[in-house]
Amino acid sequence: TAARVEARAARPTRDPAHLMRLFAERLERLDPGFGVDLLLLDAVAVERTEAAARSLADLGGAAADDHDLARLADRLAARLGDGAVARLRPRASWIPERAEAAAAPGAAAATGWTAHVADTPQRPALLFARPEAAQVLAAVPDGPPARFVWRRVPRRVVRARGPERVAPEWWTDLEGRERARDYYAVEDDQGRRYWLFRDGLFEDADRDRPPTWFVHGVFP
Description:
- The chain has 220 residues and is of the alpha+beta class.
- Helices cover 17% and strands 29% of the residues.
- It is built from three helices and eight strands.
- It has helices at residues 16-27, 62-80, 113-118; strands spanning 87-90, 100-103, 126-138, 145-150, 153-166, 181-188, 193-199, 212-218.
- The strands form two sheets. The chain has a six-stranded antiparallel beta barrel.
- The radius of gyration is 25 Å and the shape is elongated.
- 14% of the residues are buried.
- The mean pLDDT is 82.
């Protein structure tokens, strides 16, 4: 029988110790049986590396941190499997759950984050993959939440900021099923902060699809 083991690096490397550590994570899972007759090492994908002069001021700084981060990503991918480790890249979308995408750790450094973040209001550190339904009571129909029930727990709002209106992207929703959202950042009487939105506007609502509320994330 033959067994195949792959080791991948997030960026070009020529460090033998680092490469051997990546292989060790995978080799431990193999059963050699009565022994190994032949070992074949093949570099199926290689890239050019350039020697870069570094000053003493760079040692231990951002460059070293970036290098250590790439090594950590390699070790996690070797242990957890391909596809388990990814980096985020910005996407051209103002719908929060579509504004970023996962890419391989070895992908080119993401560009555009500075402008992307600068043009975007504050977002919660934890954004749910799917917004979670909530029951909301507001002082006026199109006003901020005054109370809401989420995960069966009632919460009283003491502060609210918003709304931030996010319009649907008509070019990806030709059937017109998506609706405008009004986002609010709220704080309850326990000091916990949430990011809620009302899906649909009261002036555009119909009997079949009244506006509904969701919790999309939480702030630290």
